[in-house]
Amino acid sequence: MSNTKPVLRPFTRLRSNEVDVLIALLAATAAILAAERVAKDVNQLQRNMKPFEEKPMNFGQAIEALKQGFRVRRIGWNGKGMYLVLVQQSVSMKPGSDPVRYEPAISMYTAQGKHQIGWLASQADMLGEDWEILPEDNSRVLKAEEGV
Description:
Elements: H1 16-48, H2 59-67, E1 72-74, E2 83-87, E3 105-109, E4 115-117, H3 123-127, E5 131-133
Antiparallel strand pairs: 1-5, 2-3, 3-4
């Protein structure tokens, strides 16, 4: 067995193939660190997106639920099936044209089965303590492709 130690040379004296290996190692290390950071970010997002409790919420909590992708409603609304959803998509008005970009807005799904963009809360809505997440949304965030 040989007792020779590897010879360490300064970077300025590395051979071409050694430089390639060093670059590959640095790239691999960067990729691993980036993947670890992404995994930490995903874990943090998952912790932040825990299902809300099933008890009634106040208006501020309902707004936070909307921001996380849930549909919300007031328990006392008379209209059948009415709820609110936060809309954050761009819409094209006609094929082949540039999309019309909309700022985020709250939309109400009405008792007539239509979405009304630009819902405004009344004083009673803002002070209400009877907001809830739609029961079918309680443990998941809506995906854009599922529609609203």
